[in-house]
Amino acid sequence: MTTTNQIEPEDIIICDCSGTTKAKILQLIDNGADDIDKISRATGAVSGCGSCDILVADLLNEYGK
Ligand code: FES
């Protein structure tokens, strides 16, 4: 069996336009980001095509405080 480089869940790209990863968004949420605007300003996510807004919202709902 060959070993492959596995992509960790945290390495998943949430926003293709800005290349923002799940790990980056979770780090921002950990540091107190509590809405999409704050995450967008910090990463550029949701400022391109906007199709990732639901994914960012889901992360906020799941991991936000
Ligand atoms: S995928 Fe995030 S703005 Fe386009």
Would you kindly provide a written description of the structure presented here, covering whatever features stand out?
The protein has 65 residues and is mainly alpha-helical. The protein has one domain: BFD-like [2Fe-2S]-binding domain (Arc Repressor Mutant, subunit A), CATH 1.10.10.1100. Helices cover 43% and strands 8% of the residues. It contains 3 helices and 2 strands; from the N terminus they run E-E-H-H-H. A two-stranded antiparallel sheet has the order 1-2. Strand 1 and strand 2 form a beta hairpin. Helix 1 crosses helix 3. The mean pLDDT is 92. Bound molecules: FE2/S2 (inorganic) cluster. FE2/S2 (inorganic) cluster (FES) binds next to loops.
Give a topology summary.
Layout: E1 13-15, E2 20-21, H1 22-30, H2 36-43, H3 53-63
Antiparallel strand pairs: 1-2
Helix pairs in contact: 1-3
Bound molecules: FE2/S2 (inorganic) cluster.
Give me some keywords for this one.
65 residues; mainly alpha; Arc Repressor Mutant, subunit A; two-stranded antiparallel sheet; 3 helices; binds FE2/S2 (inorganic) cluster
